Records
---
Amino acid sequence: MPRTPVLAGNWKMHCTIAEATALADGLASKVGRVEGRRVILAPPFTALGAVRKAIEGTRIELAAQNVHDQAKGAFTGEISPAMLVDAGATSVILGHSERRALFDEGDDFIRRKLESALAIGLGPIVCVGETLAQRDDGRTLAVVSSQVDAAMRGLDATAARRVIIAYEPVWAIGTGRVATREQAQEVHGQIRALLQEIGLPAADVPILYGGSVKPDNVDGLMAEPDIDGALVGGASLEVEGFARIVEYRA
Ligand code: 13P
């Protein structure tokens, strides 16, 4: 079975409920029936309900941008996995570089979130990626491998098949400086080799690229054999642009 391509929009801390509704309505009518690829929208928590309604009856899926690992308790400001399911999310982004860098999330916490998400039936989208300094030091493979290893090692095959990995080089996020398709493919190939090495069904795990994906570079990226989709920030906030990304031609 070939891997189904995944085009996911991470709206980050953007969109009021009204703005999110308009964006989701626009996408629902433009790409709500698209076949052969998965389309996932990740609005902020406050807009999950509105986006759920806007995409009802379409093939578009709903994701959250973060989750806590615990089921309930005194964790002011946090959201539990069950709350996300209740809000209609079917996936959740974990370990985004902004959460790692700005909110000190580490590999162990991200692994616990991943296990809690899987346990309740949410599909984790786990982000990994190196900083520019790490790349310049020749440490890209080491950094990305240890993040992937921490998230994935020891999962059973069924669980691993429900995970999506997103390779997002930090230097390419929000900078307009996209990784070349060769740079991205190189790391994607290494991630897949690592999954194989640790005994997971590597051929079945989608690996997305993220970092300045735009309508004018998506086709080239998607033509690479190990790039199975895109996790899109800025360009997912606009209907025409994200629709074009969903309708990439490889
Ligand atoms: P940009 O597409 O804005 O570079 O953001 C990428 C990203 O961080 C998606 O999670």
Note: The beta strands are 6-10, 38-42, 61-64, 91-94, 123-128, 164-167, 207-210, 229-232.
---
Amino acid sequence: MMKFPLTLDHLLDRGGRLFPDSEIVSRLPDKSVHRERYSDFHRRACALGSSLRRLGLKRGERVATLMWNHYAHLEAYFGVPCAGGVLHTLNLRLHPDDIAYIAQHAGDRFLIIDDVLLPLLEKFRDRAGFEKVIVVPLTGAPVPRGCDDYEKLVATARPLRIPPLREEDPAGMCYTSGTTGRPKGVVYSHRALVLHSFAAALPDVMGLANADSVCPVVPMFHVNAWGIPFAAVMVGAKLVFPGPHLDAVSLLDLYRSEGVTLTAGVPTIWMGILQALEAEPGRWQLTHGMRMVVGGAAVPESMIRAFDRFGLRVLHGWGMTETTPVGTVNYLKRDVTTAGEDERYALRAKQGVPLPFFEVRAMTERGPAPWDGNSMGELQVRGPWVAAAYHGLDAEQDKWTEDGWFRTGDVVTIDARGYVKITDRIKDLVKSGGEWISSVDLENALVGHPKVSEAAVIAVPHAKWGERPLAIVVLKAGNAATADELREYLAPRFPNFWLPDDVAFVSEIPRSSTGKMMKAVLREQFKDCKSRNQ
Ligand code: ADP
């Protein structure tokens, strides 16, 4: 066979040539709607790449973005790597000190930024070392002096002469959200992004097709919006971007007006959407069977059931920054379609089945655990879109095993059918009297209680048992509950020693910029909380 490199320029050309009329719809900060076609997107992405080269961008150099999800960010997704550069998406929700550290550490040379985010840049620009700042004038306000105007660059560009790209060349870069330590950078090759696009588009993964209308709510700075922009362009789907408007009503309006068939985001987004749908059940006529890819944190079974009642289908997936990100996605294999309702829902709440070329094992001290659905081990993975190192961090090499697997830090069971279930992060497991208790299982059960809106379970020290679980609960507005009432609700579902000794009621659970519960903060906050049974 021919040696043909798996590079993103091929996807960009294909998009422009085969699907010139597919639409890219973006909600702008003033809520107006911007529309462009793939033919415009193709021309403008090439123009951006050409201008970056004229400004001096060399192969392998990093171009950072600080942008919401919209047409210009998509242009950068392709324009930067097709010009030989590396697209580094900065997380605008991080503290300015962290953004400065990440931009410095990555060695970002240029920055492309939304004009509405310039006040954020002012907080760290002096520490970041960008040579050039290119401003996307989303609001029409004049571009400040000393910055380049994105629209002018795109309008005046000469044709892009794509440098010969190799599939192993770096194309993208993202830092972990730092839930469990300092953010670490992962560099994605063209090859990894292309193969990930193929896998993500498969029918039993996201099932992306040309006829789809795809709305990534997950930010484009959160692990490539889970690879959706690349995969959607590959198939020529309509793309719908929410811009900065991520509240439930704005999203539901957008789903309805643009006929969205597939959307994606973290569970916190869907909690808001569900509440809005429940409050006004008849208000939005959504596409029946709209798929919602949910990942980044565990999806409670109660949420899957609730969306089913509205004819919306949750696709539960698991991934990490280090895995580009999608590693497993849940679908019902043909041998379980006849299972009873409860069994099917329990299965759909698992994190799913590994994608082709994505290998998994649950590692214990004695070797890989059997796939029996009970034996726990650390999830270790390998495949063509799994990172082989962190950018500039040799000290972290112990994250890879000697036989070439990546240690995810997640504890899982894998059942005989190959469904992976995340029990916990290693650091979050509760060890009581030498036995492990899964905080994720307890949390998912608690949010199934009609009065509970959110729940976190953490370990608190205990003189006799070492650790005991403490539940921290946010109740739905206007509800009251007691610790005993919630323990009674859990009792039939778990062994007795799993039941939290106590429940703390709070108004809010701290969450990270990517929607994960910040358990380290909770552990600090509740460190003096004595179990009531000691
Ligand atoms: P960070 O590791 O800094 O939090 P990531 O965004 O890469 O940043 O997070 C990856 C982690 O998120 C996984 O290791 C896992 O613990 C968690 N995660 C992702 N998807 C799921 C899911 N569907 N269910 C449970 N946990 C998940």
Note: Residues 11-198 form a domain with the Rossmann fold fold (CATH 3.40.50.12780).
